[in-house]
Design a protein that fits this description.
- The protein is of the alpha+beta class.
- It has a single domain, classed as Aminopeptidase (3-Layer(aba) Sandwich), CATH 3.40.630.30.
- About 25% of the residues lie in helices and about 30% in strands.
- The protein is built from 4 helices and 7 strands.
- The chain is globular, with a radius of gyration of 15 Å.
- The two termini are about 15 Å apart.
Length: about 150
């Protein structure tokens, strides 16, 4: 998938794993141990997409786990210098398209209840709150569970 400004959204591969671990630990929520991304991306149950900078570095990425007709967004992040360019929105749209092609009908995610910018982003792309987990994160902040129902392609 190509963006209007010539950025390309592409699938992540296991070879991206080490860079992805560093990327998510620096720009994401950092909840996964090093090596997680590489092992996940080598399994068919995971799908990762990225937008690269002109020098090939990861500017934004999303990774999800797929189980039959449902997917869970595990992590999505955008490098600070690329924020406010709709990269996260572009990744969400591309992910929805990819998942629809794989007959996924429901996408879920968890977001910290204090992360209003992320919640608003997810709502903009059709996600609705469907649950809550009190004290879910290490710092006792709750998580809001959000879902999106996809149309069949």
């Amino acid at each position: 998938m190509t963006r209007d400004d010539k950025q390309i959204i592409s699938r992540l591969s296991p070879e991206d794993g080490a860079h992805l671990d560093l990327f998510f630990n620096h720009f994401g929520f950092g909840q996964f141990a090093t090596g997680w991304s590489q092992s996940a991306l080598s399994q068919d149950a995971y799908l990762g997409l990225s937008i690269r900078s002109q020098n090939g570095d990861i500017a934004a990425a999303v990774i999800c786990r797929i189980a039959t007709d449902e997917a869970e967004i595990i992590e999505i992040a955008v490098a600070e210098t690329y924020r406010r360019r709709n990269f996260a929105g572009d990744l969400l749209l591309a992910l929805q398209e990819e998942l629809s092609c794989q007959n996924v009908t429901r996408v879920v995610l968890e977001v910290a209840e204090i992360n209003e910018p992320a919640r608003l982003l997810y709502q903009k792309y059709g996600f609705i709150a469907c649950g809550h987990r009190a004290s879910y994160y290490d710092n006792h902040i709750g998580a809001i569970i959000m879902e999106l129902w996809l149309s069949k392609v």
